[in-house]
Amino acid sequence: MSTVTKIFGSKVFDDRVMKAKLPAKIYNSLRRTIDEGVDLDIGVANAVASAMKDWAVENGATHYTHWFQPLTGITAEKHDSFISPSPDGGIIMEFSGKELIKGEPDASSFPSGGIRATFEARGYTAWDPTSYAFIKGKTLCIPTAFCSYGGEALDKKTPLLRSMEALNTQALRILRLFGNDAVKCVKTSVGPEQEYFLITKEMYDARPDIRFTGRTLFGAKPPKGQEMDDHYFGVIKPRVAEFMEDLNEELWKLGILAKTEHNEVAPAQHELAPIYTTTNIATDHNQLTMEIMQKVAIRHELVCLLHEKPFAGVNGSGKHNNWSISTDTGANLLSPGATPCENAQFLLFLCAVIKAVDDYQDLLRISVATAGNDHRLGANEAPPAVVSMFLGDELNAILEAIETDTPYVAADKTKMKLGVNVLPKFTRDTTDRNRTSPFAFTGNKFEFRMLGSSNSIACANIMLNAAVAESLKIYADRLEGTEDFETALHEMIKKTIKDHKRIIFNGNGYDDSWIKEATEQRGLLNYRTTADCMPHLLDKKNVEMLTAHKVFSNRELQSREEIMLENYCKTVIIEANTMTDMAKCSYAPAIERYASSIAQNAMFKKSLDATIPCAYEAGIVKRLSVLCDRIANTADELESAVIKLSDAESIDEEAYMIRDTVLVKMAELRAAVDEAETITSKDFWPFPSYADMLFSVR
Ligand SMILES: NC(=O)CC[C@H](N)C(=O)O
């Protein structure tokens, strides 16, 4: 066995271990819980817990934790050791079924958006057996859902599981209509491409803005950025290669299918992509991947930046969510099939996605909304904030032929009537990719490109699954019990294309003319910022859909809106405070020192000989003095804008004020400091430059 096959999954209590360690009866009953959602009885839980503990202890674990994903966007853990006193004064290592299936963390300090007051400390964590337990360090981590005392979800996993269930229910109804009775379960899978930057720890330590906010808040454009396209897929530097090697090993041990690694477009930018897996597991794995990337980087004296736009002017970091729907019998429902019948089914699922993306474009935008991602969307190969879909030429032609009842030329001029017997065979689309499209069909899956690199993929997939479940439900309601299935199917697909073709766009998403056409002619939404989109989470149609499929309750939705806006406001306020601090306490004094040293030089020169020219010195001193005044004044104005936020009467209003005043002043302050950087001696400049940081790893 190669080393990789040996270490892969070695820290995971996966199917192989369960099979080997559990009595057959227990194993089969656990499998039924994992595969079919059958309730687990305490006897089984006790047996699993005991085997899990023995395995974990054998592998060096001393503690266990319920590992969950609160609404902070990161994961949470509270370790308990397995020890229990024994009568002889020693200890035994113990872990019960009760401890496995339920935890009661005193977790009052997590954001709950009003679901739970601080004095109501209790929250519950409940084991999610569909995601395997694993060992991190010396701790056995048990993936769990997290909810309040009253049963409301306080995490991202619970609604994600609910959305998968909603899609499963509706997709099965559709499959039955096509005579498919063998499929027991439909699941979505995802392969998220994780982009990130690596800079040296030395650079990181020297930049308070990166340390406090994850991104640079100042920095003049370097002489060289990504103009030469020489970093993308370029030779990986040895130090980065060592980091990647180490990272792969850690991920493989945790059963994470790390597959592709390469240099990305911007200097210092890289990407890691795993093989796709069930959405729930992919979400857990992506959270772990982000955590481990940061840990491994430190071992190499590097820092891994997961911010969406750590450096202005070069590519930001996204997390493209490659999403598909498949059955337990191994069929990918987004893959054009081999027979006309399969293609009719494929077209129905395709239409369900088209309808979902159009009807719930706002929810998709909301699902990726963060202060950081607002800076990324709309430039440097990240899609714009207007949601649209790219299907490619062949699929477009097919949809057009269906809509207009005209022959589909590429397929023997067969008229596109969607009767299962007359639909022509067509193969996988091989058209080009579109980097500016938020939602691109890539042959047998959709690539949702709007997610930012720090986003949990849970949110985007919750909305996507729920919206598609809703389309499928509407279809199933219409088709079930119809006399003439083929005609009804054909009419329904035709209607979907007519009603929703506005969302399909194959051109350049960055063109101003597209944004104009999208918003003015097609009526698509353009929510530029988190402040613009977040309140729409509570729009009637969104609440109705999400509650109808039991993905969120009303209260859970309100809490999410509040938490996301609070997060936006806090993030920007921390950025603003960091900026005023850096401007007042570091930049302005440094600029003053440099200007005064130049002024003194000029005076020395003049005292030697009054005819020595000092135009250079005078010019610089003048420019820097003007800039320094501007920096000081703008920093004051920024500070006042932040103080004024306390006048806001609601979190929505505070977010609007941030968008309209604080972010505007931040941009002005940055412009003044960046201009000063271009004429100040490096010896006086207090922080590393863009060039220093972007080219720091050699
Ligand atoms: N080449 C690429 O796919 C770049 C994507 C880009 N970094 C983004 O923000 O999404």
Automatic annotation (TrEMBL):
Pfam family, one: GSIII_N
SMART domains in the record: Gln-synt_C (SM01230)
GS catalytic domain sequence ranges: 156-587
Stated family: Belongs to the glutamine synthetase family.
Protein name: Glutamine synthetase III
Organism encoding this protein: Neglectibacter timonensis
Limits of the GS beta-grasp domain: 62-151
SUPFAM superfamilies on file: Glutamine synthetase/guanido kinase (SSF55931)
Highest taxon of the lineage: Bacteria
InterPro entries: Gln-synt_C (IPR040577), Gln_synt_N (IPR008147), Gln_synth/guanido_kin_cat_dom (IPR014746), Gln_synth_cat_dom (IPR008146), Gln_synth_gly_rich_site (IPR027303), GS_Type-3 (IPR052725), GSIII_N (IPR022147)
